[in-house]
Backbone:
């Protein structure tokens, strides 16, 4: 099977056609295309069917999409029945979504961002930003290589391979690290902004923060902190306008 | 806001476009995080410190967002670019509030624009449904490239509009010191609320909550020692 590196590169754009109908589907087809090319000469009819299947509905975390792209391509070359491949696609959506979201969006990204924020406040400046980008992209790139390779090697057995992999072990560790660095960053950043503002200004800011936490938790998703901020800004402008 | 040359403005629009593409489409390398987008924009505008201050503030808001599945969320990337450009060259205590306000409005508009792009993608796929059902690889590639161009156009437009608004605010709005400072403190307070909300929500009730508490304790000690 050729086209592995082209498929890997295309995986970085797997969400390029994201939409509410097929979600990642077309992007998955785009990433799988180089892997399926050899099938064209071996079995053109199978190739056509495989391309159709590859771009149907799919959704998962983009950083783990390589597991599905690789496994499904392997299954097509192994001449597995089409309905089994469709079931594999369906079965992979939820676990790859849940594991990837927890590892990357709820773990690695906030964890590294928390560390970067703390480092900025402690004087690292833009080096902290560069460090964040390098660390994240090394881990993310390594994960993409591993995911595609594992999918291609295991095919229909990809579920068992995921269960045995480092992913399951590392998610709680990364989550704990993220909790620590975010906890570290929030007081440091608050102090960074309030330094030299004066007691009255600092008290007012902390009062806004406490009110924000309280009302956004009270009203739930209807009042996000962004909406709270815009409301608070509007109130300030009105107060200043009437001379308060 | 410092006066931008044509080259600086073009670089900011190019950076804002890349940053908008990065959020969902390609390459998701985290250029779209406000901390990154704002710092680089500040550097382009000639004031890295303003970029950092703006980026850190908007990053606290972004920490309250979990971009999972089909969730709708604000786009803080191009917003951070325009906000950092507005904050450049002004003392942060007086400039950050107005810049963050612009950033929050643009982030909201960016979230809406993302929905428009997603609906356009769906319509384009419906139009080429026959070609997709026939297994035409060229149809998949075309859909992909047009969708990327659509998202790039979204990012360029959002950044250009943001920079135009930043220029209009810098030229046309004169805030007194108390209002400018009040705006900064309200934005900082709201950002801290967002950071706390994001941290507590993602911590749940297991070991991560204990690690969050430990981190907060160390953070408080370090803040006191600074």
Residues:
């Amino acid at each position: 099977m050729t086209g592995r590196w082209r498929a890997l590169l295309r995986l970085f754009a797997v969400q390029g056609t994201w939409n509410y109908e097929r979600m990642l589907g077309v992007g998955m087809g785009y990433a799988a295309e180089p892997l399926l090319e050899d099938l064209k000469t071996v079995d053109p009819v199978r190739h056509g069917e495989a391309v159709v299947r590859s771009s149907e509905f799919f959704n998962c975390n983009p950083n783990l999409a390589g597991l599905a792209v690789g496994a499904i391509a392997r299954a097509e070359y192994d001449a597995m029945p089409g309905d089994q491949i469709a079931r594999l696609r369906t079965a992979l959506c939820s676990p790859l979504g849940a594991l990837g979201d927890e590892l990357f969006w709820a773990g690695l990204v906030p964890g590294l961002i928390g560390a970067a924020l703390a480092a900025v406040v402690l004087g690292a400046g833009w080096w902290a930003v560069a460090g964040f980008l390098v660390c994240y992209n090394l881990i993310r790139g390594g994960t993409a290589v591993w995911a595609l390779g594992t999918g291609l090697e295991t095919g229909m057995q990809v579920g068992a391979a995921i269960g045995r992999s480092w992913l399951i072990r590392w998610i709680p560790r990364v989550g704990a690290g993220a909790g620590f660095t975010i906890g570290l960053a929030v007081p440091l950043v608050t102090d960074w902004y309030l330094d030299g503002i004066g007691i009255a200004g600092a008290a007012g800011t902390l009062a806004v923060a406490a009110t924000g936490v309280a009302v956004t938790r009270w009203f739930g998703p209807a009042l996000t902190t962004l909406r709270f901020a815009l409301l608070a800004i509007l109130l300030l402008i009105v107060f200043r306008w009437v001379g308060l | 806001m410092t006066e931008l040359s044509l080259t600086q403005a073009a670089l900011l629009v190019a950076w804002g476009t890349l940053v908008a593409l990065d959020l969902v489409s390609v390459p998701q390398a985290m250029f779209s995080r406000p901390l990154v987008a704002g710092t680089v924009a500040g550097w382009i505008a000639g004031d890295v410190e303003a970029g950092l201050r703006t980026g850190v503030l908007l990053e606290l808001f972004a920490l309250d967002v979990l971009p999972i599945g089909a969730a709708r969320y604000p786009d803080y990337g191009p917003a951070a670019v325009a906000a950092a450009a507005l904050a450049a060259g002004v003392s942060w205590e007086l400039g950050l509030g107005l810049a963050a306000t612009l950033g929050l409005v643009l982030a909201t508009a960016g979230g809406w624009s993302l929905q428009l792009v997603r609906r356009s993608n769906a319509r384009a796929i419906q139009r080429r449904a026959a070609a997709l059902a026939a297994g035409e690889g060229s149809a998949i590639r075309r859909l992909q490239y047009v969708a990327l161009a659509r998202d790039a156009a979204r990012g360029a437009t959002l950044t250009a509009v943001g920079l135009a608004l930043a220029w209009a605010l810098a030229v046309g709005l004169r805030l007194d010191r108390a209002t400018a400072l009040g705006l900064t403190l309200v934005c900082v307070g709201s950002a801290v609320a967002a950071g706390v909300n994001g941290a507590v929500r993602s911590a749940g009730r297991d070991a991560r909550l204990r690690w969050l508490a430990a981190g907060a304790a160390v953070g408080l000690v370090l803040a006191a020692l600074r």
